[in-house]
Write a structure and sequence with these properties.
167 residues; alpha+beta; Alpha-Beta Plaits; six-stranded antiparallel β-sheet; two-stranded antiparallel ribbon
Amino acid sequence: MTETPIAYLCGGSNLGDRRANLKSAIDAVRKAGIIVRRVSSVYETEPVGFLNQPCFLNIAVAVETRLPPRELLACCQDIEELHGRVRSFPGAPRVLDLDILLYNDLIIDGPSLQIPHPRMTQRRFVLEPLAQIAPEAIHPVLKKTILSLLASCPDGSRVTLYSELED
């Protein structure tokens, strides 16, 4: 019997009830038949790129799924859309953002899907929650742990512990 793939997702929200948006996204992932193994604490983070917007809440999620990567991406995009995600411009404020960071040790470099996520190593708001739930996970291109990537992350933006997702 083959082992079910493990993927790591990053969720973010900076519009509406940010915490409720993230909680609802996790519920939607479960309803899609994806097994949620671990969810990080919620971190409040400064926006990166387009700065004139509210702070984000971010989480990392470890999931077990038999969905191939492109189907997992489609599932994440469907969940974003169900939550009212509008893609107006890159870095725009959003109700929900759900990205695939890692999928086992796969490396995919396509026009619509890149795994590992191409900017994860430069984003403290991604690495901080991911290091909480998967510090020893290995970036398949750089061959470094998430914890070591966090330690060398060039992003100096503020990332602070906000709450737990589950009460």
